[in-house]
Automatic annotation (TrEMBL):
The lineage of its organism: Bacteria, Bacillati, Bacillota, Clostridia, Peptostreptococcales. InterPro entries: DUF739 (IPR008003). It comes from the Bacteria. This is DUF739 family protein.
Length: 74
């Protein structure tokens, strides 16, 4: 069984920065559709995408990355 992750902190962080799905997707170098699939747990983030989203876009400290990307949805 595939683990489904809770991306609510990512959604909140993106919203707080006033960014759209399109803005984030462009920064990640992927389509809006690809970003949407990742945020709905139908595709996985690459390590590079996690780094860009966490550090460059959301500006979260590296030690907090797991709580944004790897918290199981319950």
């Amino acid at each position: 069984m595939t683990c489904v992750f809770d991306y609510s902190k990512i959604i909140s962080g993106v919203y707080a920065k006033g960014l759209s799905y399109g803005d984030v997707a462009r920064t990640l170098g992927i389509s809006e559709r690809a970003y949407s699939l990742k945020m709905s747990n139908r595709a996985e983030f690459t390590q590079q995408e996690i780094d860009v989203l966490a550090i460059d876009i959301l500006e979260i400290p590296p030690e907090r990355i797991p709580e944004y990307f790897f918290t199981p949805l319950v």
